[in-house]
Amino acid sequence: MARVAVVTGGTRGIGEAISLALKEAGITVAANYAGNDEKAAAFTERTGIKAYKWDVGDFDACAAGVAQVEAELGPVDIVVNNAGITRDGTILKMTRDMWEDVIRINLGGCFNMAHAVFPGMRTRKWGRIVNIGSINGQAGQYGQVNYAAAKSGIHGFTKALAQEGARFGVTVNAIAPGYIDTDMVAAVPTDVLEKIVAKIPVGRLGQAHEIARAVAFLCAEEGGFVTGSTLSINGGQHMY
Ligand code: CAA
User: Fold for domain 4-180+210-232?
Assistant: First the structure.
């Protein structure tokens, strides 16, 4: 039977590319999303991949969402924690809500999803969890104390959970994308983005499929000896 994957934030941007790459690898994919019904419906129409709506920042919603996917598609073998938001601003302008939303969704979402799937993976002695971190969690970024803290937290979360999963055949890895050509990066003011791109040695933004290919490798059978690692895919912008 085909393995089942949940990709959070899986209907747009990097998540959409990941959902497609896993489908191409023969995996049954459930693409989670939080808000944009119209884009999710168009995604399902285009790809044939079913979309499931819940907020990854909500612990109970993750448990219920995973239960629904398992009832419809079978046990979840793979989770890609990709869902994330930005609420950029210098600390003087950052409100408590901007801080808490980013920590709750970007970092809390990884805990909530892993908590829901880990017992089953452990029992079945096979699992793949891939967490999407960020170059800005490794290097920091002006105007992103919330996002950098959450993404940096994801890198620590990954190494800790990898130690817990290893003897049960559950690998846990992170990918740290640099600036990828998505709606999230398009929201950065043009003049700021131009300065950032000027500092990328390969001279361009990354493409979502360049992240998805690496996720597919980590989720494959041959990925079984890779755990606790962080793969930086950033065009050479930060050599970590
Ligand atoms: N380093 C040092 N100083 C900087 C700076 C930097 N990188 N950027 C701005 N400044 C300075 C400015 O020159 C300005 O100084 P003066 O007051 O002396 O002129 C001061 O800081 C304030 O700058 P702004 O007026 O621009 O501040 P703002 O609060 O209006 O906006 C900001 C700040 C929202 C952070 C804006 O600069 C911004 O959007 N930056 C981009 C942040 C970013 O890269 N986000 C990534 C989103 S994509 C993503 O996160 C995906 C991923 O994983 C990579």
Answer: Rossmann fold (3.40.50)
